[in-house]
Design goal:
With 191 residues, the chain is mostly helical. It has helices at 9-25, 30-45, 51-67, 72-84, 88-101, 109-190. The longest helix has 82 residues, at 109-190. The relative contact order is 0.06.
């Protein structure tokens, strides 16, 4: 099967193009469909996929699974695509199916099982991080709202203070005028 692992980004894009051609020439062939999905999953790591690419990959791998539900690697690939969509629980379910489906007589059975179990651990950690990000974002929103409220209160207090200053100046000016009048009147009486 074609794979991006260890290749360059350009090689992965070329591989996806060739896998799409193979899928067009071999419609219904689960290996060709898996190659399309696997390259899309590989390109997710490089963050060059669009939502349409992920949808294409999921359609392709679902078709491959329908044709050959006993291929553990197909479930692993679908788990990678679902993870990219943030569907962590569905991705985890696919990894469990991959473990259950993996042929015990295959030469690299132990290595693949280890990979799937490691992926489950990483997936669980990513899901926790995603939940934490949501919590942090919610806390940031609440903090921003609190800061905006504090800012409004400070603005109102500043305006009240300015008004008080103006009244104080007016009051001082009033008393200064009264004192000036009293002083003027006193001096006028003395003359």
């Amino acid at each position: 099967a074609l794979s991006y692992a260890g290749g360059t980004l350009e090689e992965a894009k070329l591989g996806l193009t060739l896998a799409r051609q193979a899928m067009d020439e071999l419609p219904g062939h689960p290996g060709a469909a898996h190659s399309v999905a696997a390259f899309i999953a590989d390109l997710v790591s490089a963050e060059v996929n669009t939502e349409e690419d992920l949808d294409e990959g999921l359609r392709a791998i679902s078709a491959a699974i329908s044709e050959n539900p006993s291929r553990a690697r197909f479930y692993y690939t679908r788990a990678r695509l679902r993870e990219a969509q943030g569907k962590f629980e569905k991705a985890r379910e696919d990894l469990v199916v991959a473990i259950d489906t993996e042929g015990r007589d295959s030469q690299d059975y132990q290595g693949r099982i280890t990979d799937y179990i490691r992926e489950i651990g990483l997936l669980d950690a990513r899901a926790r991080m995603d939940r934490m990000k949501v919590g942090v974002a919610r806390n940031l929103d609440m903090t921003r709202a609190s800061l905006e409220e504090i800012e409004k209160r400070v603005d109102a207090a500043t305006e009240t203070f300015r008004s008080s200053q103006i009244r104080l100046v007016e009051t001082v000016a009033f008393f200064a005028a009264i004192l000036a009048l009293v002083q003027f009147t006193s001096q006028a009486e003395l003359r």
